[in-house]
Design goal:
The complex is a heterodimer of chains A (224) and B (270). By secondary structure, chain A is mainly α. Chain A contains 10 helices and no strands. Helices cover 41% and strands 20% of the residues of chain B. The chains are: A mainly alpha (224), B alpha/beta (270).
């Protein structure tokens, strides 16, 4: 139950930050708009924009909760409920954002595999939430975290998709699935993308959980 | 320029004392000063400070009659030879403290002497470098600042902290609102923590620390931003907790708090 309460209240918190929410919604749109004439480019940029927006939002939500988390632990909340609830909330926000933009591309673009395009955006949102959490866990200050995310997304955009650097980046799966969605080709690309997304999710979510288990650990004292 | 008795009486009135009682207290204070043949200002200090002190004393429970002393309960917190070191810097060493149920302990000391660190050690949020800590399992912690989510309302905080303690949302909210009324505060339904005054946010902090009915309460200067009335309400609440058999450890720098407590741990100069 704690997980669901944390998820519900985290969603409510984000929903009240109108300005931040507007910017999060707008960010992928600018990415999309500048290359709207080229379907492939605009779709990939849009999906990366969704990933960047959701990971940054998660980073800020994680950092904003630093004062509350130790008290929740002391009151009895397990770390997995605190982290899992927040991750659930931010993934939900990301999925909603991806759903909205999928409708936009459905109406505005001529996409070869519309289902794969939906999957691409979904994967971007689902990977972004734990990535933002992990960066937030590693870099407790917002500026440093935001700059780190900027670096990750910039490298992901600029690196050759076939090269090792791009494959080591968290959103390679988005480009791989996006290529199938827009240009067609072997369905194996979707499986490769999903496998990469799965591994990335496990590393980010597991890393976040491990770091917070350590950071929010309580000294175990014997009773007098 | 007003004389001392008039200034004293005016301050009593400002603090909400009834006019007749304020006049009587001013007269009695002047008479006490006359007995020593010194000016009231020399005996009691500045009029406004003595008026505040007197109001706090008169408002505290047990002020009219001697404080009821309950039998101390079981030991709920025990520190033996506790020390804390950050790299080569020693914050404190050899700290001993035992607090039983029904007792209040105060931690005092200069800025930077490690009062808050010691309280975090008691909570289990920071590990001691040496020594032994034993404490009861159910503990409530109220930090000096922070500890709340700026975009959530008080009732949402009650729900969140209640869920952490295994309470259903409805019960957590009603308990939180009930505890808030004891601090003369009715939480606004729409008001978020970031829109609250510093004192109100500290009341929220206090309620959150107490929401799960802990046996041991650890309070780090919890009255920051409190006005005089709330400050008195706070101490009444501390006495209520004490009389209910709980143990309270409070970090303070206000020396006149110390007469209200059972133990004083002075961490001294840094």
């Amino acid at each position: 139950m704690t997980t669901l309460v944390v998820a519900g209240l985290s969603t409510r918190e984000v929903g009240r930050r109108w300005a931040a929410l507007a910017l999060v919604i707008a960010l992928p749109f600018w990415f999309y708009l500048v290359r709207r004439d080229a379907t492939g480019q605009s779709m990939r940029m849009l999906a990366l924009g969704i990933g960047w927006a959701i990971s940054t939002l998660t980073l800020f939500v994680v950092n904003a909760s630093r004062g509350v988390d130790p008290r929740l632990r002391l009151t009895g909340a397990p770390v997995i409920s605190i982290i899992g609830g927040r991750l659930l909330a931010m993934t939900g926000v990301g999925v909603a954002l991806a759903g909205g933009y999928w409708i936009l591309t459905w109406l505005d673009q001529d996409v070869l595999h519309l289902g794969a395009a939906a999957l691409m955006m979904l994967v971007s949102a689902v990977v972004a939430a734990p990535l933002g959490s992990l960066i937030g866990a590693l870099l407790p200050r917002e500026l440093e975290g935001a700059l780190a995310l900027l670096s990750v997304v910039a490298v992901q955009m600029l690196a050759d998709p076939a090269g090792l650097t791009a494959k080591l980046m968290p959103f390679w799966s988005v480009r791989e699935i996006g290529t199938y969605a827009v240009d067609g080709g072997s369905f194996d690309m979707v499986w490769h993308g999903l496998a990469h997304a799965g591994v990335t999710w496990l590393i980010c979510a597991g890393g976040t959980l491990a770091l917070f288990q350590w950071r929010l650990r309580l000294a175990r004292y014997p009773e007098p | 320029m007003t004389d001392w008795p008039s200034a004293f009486e005016a301050e009593l009135l400002r603090l909400g004392v009834q006019p007749a009682r304020a006049r009587r207290l001013a007269d009695e204070t002047s008479l006490q000063a006359a007995e020593t043949a010194d000016a009231p200002g020399e005996v009691f200090g500045p009029a406004h400070l003595y008026a505040r002190h007197l109001v706090a004393e008169l408002s505290a429970p047990g002020a009219a009659s001697p404080r009821t002393k309950f039998e101390p309960g079981p030991i709920l917190l025990s520190l033996t030879g506790v020390s804390k070191r950050y790299r080569r810097q020693t914050v404190f060493t050899g700290v001993d403290l035992t607090v039983r149920g029904g007792e209040v302990a105060a931690i005092v000391g200069a800025n930077g002497c490690g009062k808050s660190t010691l309280l975090r050690i008691c909570a289990g949020l920071t590990r001691p470098s040496g020594g032994t800590v034993k404490r009861t399992r159910r503990v409530g912690f109220v930090p000096q600042d922070g500890g709340t989510a700026g975009w959530l309302t008080a009732e949402e905080h009650f729900t969140l902290f209640g869920a952490a303690a295994g309470m259903v949302p409805g019960r957590a909210r009603s308990t939180g609102v009930h505890l808030a009324t004891r601090l003369a505060w009715r939480p606004g339904r729409q008001q978020r923590a970031q829109q609250m005054s510093g004192g109100t946010r500290q009341k929220l902090n206090l309620v959150l620390g107490e929401l799960h009915a802990p046996d041991l309460l650890l309070l780090d200067e919890p009255y920051q931003g409190f006005d005089q009335g709330t400050y008195v309400d706070f101490w009444q609440q501390v006495f209520a907790w004490r009389d209910a058999g709980r143990a309270i450890v409070v970090v303070t720098h206000l020396l006149h708090d110390l007469q209200n407590v059972d133990h004083v741990l002075d961490l001294g100069e840094r």
